[in-house]
Design a protein that fits this description.
There is one protein chain. This protein has about 400 residues and is α/β, with parallel strands linked by helices. Helix content is about 35%, strand content about 20%. The protein is built from 11 helices and 17 strands. A 7-stranded mixed beta sheet has the order 4-12-11-10-7-5-6, sandwiched between helices. It has a 4-stranded mixed beta sheet with strand order 1-2-3-15. A hairpin with a 2-residue loop joins strand 1 and strand 2. Helix 2 runs antiparallel to helix 8, helix 3 packs parallel to helix 8 and helix 6 runs parallel beside helix 7.
């Protein structure tokens, strides 16, 4: 989440002397210990309630601790939590059928893994297996993960280690179709990977004209088009996938975050034009029984509670309320987004607003860069909760 106050290391327990293992200190932490959640609210270890407009970084899709989700995961754990991918797992087949139907991609194939970075790694690997090429086009401000090739496709030199900087990726301006077409015309591009709504990049939106032109150019030059739907997908935009607002149909779609409401899981939706081969892709934990039970429970709730439509309606309402606030709040310079993926651009550092939001108004949001608040609430957010957020946000500007 980013933040300010650093937590001290825990004290020695039980009278032990000498060194003890500590956490590798890579996360700046807010001094809040969240121990409980329900719906769009969480509580810390002191009993303080918080409104959650962050969703654990877009992971909590159906709300914290949904009763149906708890029951289904608990039932599966009492039967079998894990067995390897060397045997039949009918839950995987059920998930593929249900996900295909829910997303409108019944004719695609599904490969299950554990995270978004793994999804993008496997998507890029599959593209290279298919056309034999090694060059990738990615957008400026993109974020695709922290593993080997996924991090190389991420436009942030601060997190690309020398061992990952292998010259595979060319970064191009978002929505500059001519620049992308010029690179594709060279005939050596393996894959284009794109977020149709950039998350870490600050809720930057792909235009329909760019998306359709990019898809056409990829087809013309034999390049695989990958839509990274890890943050913007799974209902968050008000359609199942964000690219469905743009009238395109990518060759490969990657998903994670909201797919299992907090259980580590990712997936790759693969066009029927790709022919699988034994041993081509693989995973130990991916698609395990417990993960599939969690993902199936998520689809149950999304369908029974119409959460994709709720994301659209409540998102439209929240955007309208934020645009009203923008008229009277000079520090708000722009409102961007779709559904329940919204960016609030400020002319001051976001920490100046997030600090009072968390510590005084007890409300979590995400952030991007130095000046953007990022809203990624559970898809069950109500209009009343949206109003509550607006009230708390107003007070945070006056702190």
């Amino acid at each position: 989440m980013g933040g300010a106050t650093m937590l001290p290391s825990p004290p020695l327990r039980g009278g032990r002397e000498g060194p003890i293992m500590k956490l590798f200190d890579v996360y700046p932490l807010f001094d809040v210990n969240i121990v409980k959640g329900e719906g769009c609210r969480v509580w810390d270890d002191r009993g303080q309630e918080y409104l959650d407009l962050y969703g654990g970084h877009a992971v909590i899709s159906i709300g914290h601790c949904h009763p149906h989700y708890i029951n289904k995961v608990s039932e599966q754990l009492q039967k079998l939590g894990f067995y390897s991918n060397s045997v039949v797992n009918t839950l995987q087949a059920e998930l593929a059928e249900r996900l295909g139907r829910a997303s409108g991609y019944e004719d695609y194939q599904l490969f299950l893994i554990n995270s978004g970075a793994e999804a993008n790694e496997n998507a890029l690997k599959l593209a290279s297996f298919t056309n034999g090429r090694t060059r990738v086009l990615s957008a400026e401000k993109a974020f695709h993960g922290r593993t080997s090739l996924a991090v190389e496709a991420t436009a942030n030199p601060n997190i690309i280690a020398p061992i990952n900087a292998n010259g595979h990726v060319t970064y191009l301006p978002l929505n500059d179709l001519a620049a992308w077409e010029a690179e594709l015309a060279k005939g050596d591009v393996c894959a284009v990977i794109i977020e149709c709504i950039q998350g870490v990049g600050g809720i930057r939106m792909v235009t329909e004209e760019f998306a359709k032109g990019l898809q056409a150019a990829c087809k013309k030059y034999g390049t695989v088009l990958i839509c990274d739907e890890i943050q913007c997908g799974y209902g968050r935009s008000g359609k199942f996938f964000a690219h469905q607002w743009l009238g395109i149909r990518p060759d490969i779609i990657t998903v994670a975050k909201g797919i299992a409401n907090g259980f580590p899981m990712g997936g790759v939706l693969i066009s029927p034009e790709f022919t699988p081969k034994y041993g081509q892709l693989g995973t130990t934990f991916g698609g395990n029984h417990l993960a599939c039970a969690a993902a199936l429970a998520v689809l149950d709730v999304m369908e029974s509670e119409n959460l994709v439509e709720n994301a659209r309606q409540t998102g439209d309402y929240l955007m309208a309320r934020l645009n009203e606030l923008k008229q009277s709040e000079p520090h708000i310079t722009d409102i961007r987004g779709r559904g329940l993926m919204i960016g609030i651009e400020l002319d001051i550092p976001h920490k100046d607003v997030r600090q009072p939001l968390i510590y005084e108004q007890h409300c979590f949001t995400g952030c991007s860069g130095t000046n953007t608040l990022r809203l990624l609430p559970p898809l069950c957010l109500t209009k009343a909760e949206a109003d509550e957020f607006i009230t708390r946000l107003k007070k945070s500007f006056r702190s």
